[in-house]
Amino acid sequence: MSSREQVVLLSEEGTPIGTADKATVHTTDTALHLAFSCHVFDERGRILVTRRSLAKVAWPGVWTNSFCGHPAPGEQMTDAVARRAERELGITLENVTLALPDFRYRATDASGIVEYEICPVFTATTRDDIAASPDEVAEWNWVDPGSLVSAVASTPWAFSPWLTLQLPLLNEASAPAR
Length: 178
Fold this sequence. Notes:
four-stranded mixed β-sheet; 12 strands; 4 helices
């Protein structure tokens, strides 16, 4: 068994078709694969945003949602979310909720690296202090959700493309029914 992190490769229909080393999957011709995003809130209702490490292959130094990751082959998605929260931010999560089960996107960064993912989006809360891993996170901040929406709308180029796509969908999903 490989000690390298593996990602689940997917058909265009979203069916698992194999695995690949995470280190080799993000290129200028990235295969569709399974991932997740998580937006973490504190007890005051603020949302955690993080700035990606400058060492990241894709979108280095860009502000994004709280954290992202890839489930290992056979790993339950909620287990993967908990694992990455601990690994990237040093936190445990509460109230993990699947908010956007069918989120999917393809985007290319300035260096030509492609993200191509079926990426369910979760929300969660934490009461923990952030202890971010520097190889994953350059900076982080708790912000008012409305301020984040305004910032992303005003300067989408300063944020990851998945955050700019997810945020309006999350707000729509959480809006009261009329």
